[in-house]
Amino acid sequence: MKTESESTDLMASLASRSLFIGLTDAQLGLLVKAGSIEHFEPGQVIALEGQPGQALYIILSGSVSVAPVASQPGRHPESIVLRSERTPDALYGVDFFGEMSVLDFESISATVTALEPCDLLVVPVAGLYKAFQQDRDIHIIVISNLARTLSYRLRLANERHDTPGPCHCRGPEACGSQLT
């Protein structure tokens, strides 16, 4: 059970994150109540590619690796790192994952593994949508923030393909990417 001080710290931490900007303390409280804090050790798999997406994960501390299976045609073996720390160049969405399954109810698109000890707020999709039903503004704000984050991530991916020099995926010609 969290102490009042721990709950206050958690709420303050969440309020400053891009996914939750615009939510009131009461609205954040509904989301926190819908989830649970889970701890993962280095090397522990948090989400497995191909499995049903069942939660939104917010990184409270630590970092994770997000990597697709390299053996699939058209997939790239490189991974990205998501972490709890806030940096000026990481304004949007570096501190959560699972959002794609929240939006499209599809399976997990990459395997997520803890790189160091991690604490995550894990909000099951059912709990998230229950909070959305209890307060429609939560739905509007969170989905709008998710759209901004996905737009930002797509722009970053496009820039990687447009930047001269080695591409993270060996270039659009090598990977067949048609990002525009």
Rg on CA atoms, Å: 17 Å
- Please give the alpha-carbon distance between the first and last residues: 48 Å
Number of strands: 8
What is the CATH C-level name?
Answer: Mainly Beta
Structural class by secondary-structure content: alpha+beta
Helix % is 25-40%
User: How many DSSP helices?
Assistant: 6
Instruction: Give the CATH architecture.
Output: Sandwich
Order of helices and strands: HHEEEEEEHEEHHH
**In CATH terms, what is the fold-level topology?**
Jelly Rolls
- The number of domains is 1
The low-confidence runs, each spanning 5 or more residues with pLDDT under 50, are 88-92, 166-180
**Would you tell me the overall average pLDDT?**
80
Query: What does the main sheet amount to?
Result: 4 strands, antiparallel
Overall shape: globular
| CATH superfamily (homologous) name | Jelly Rolls
Strand content: 15-25%
For the biggest β-sheet, the strand order reads: 1-8-3-6
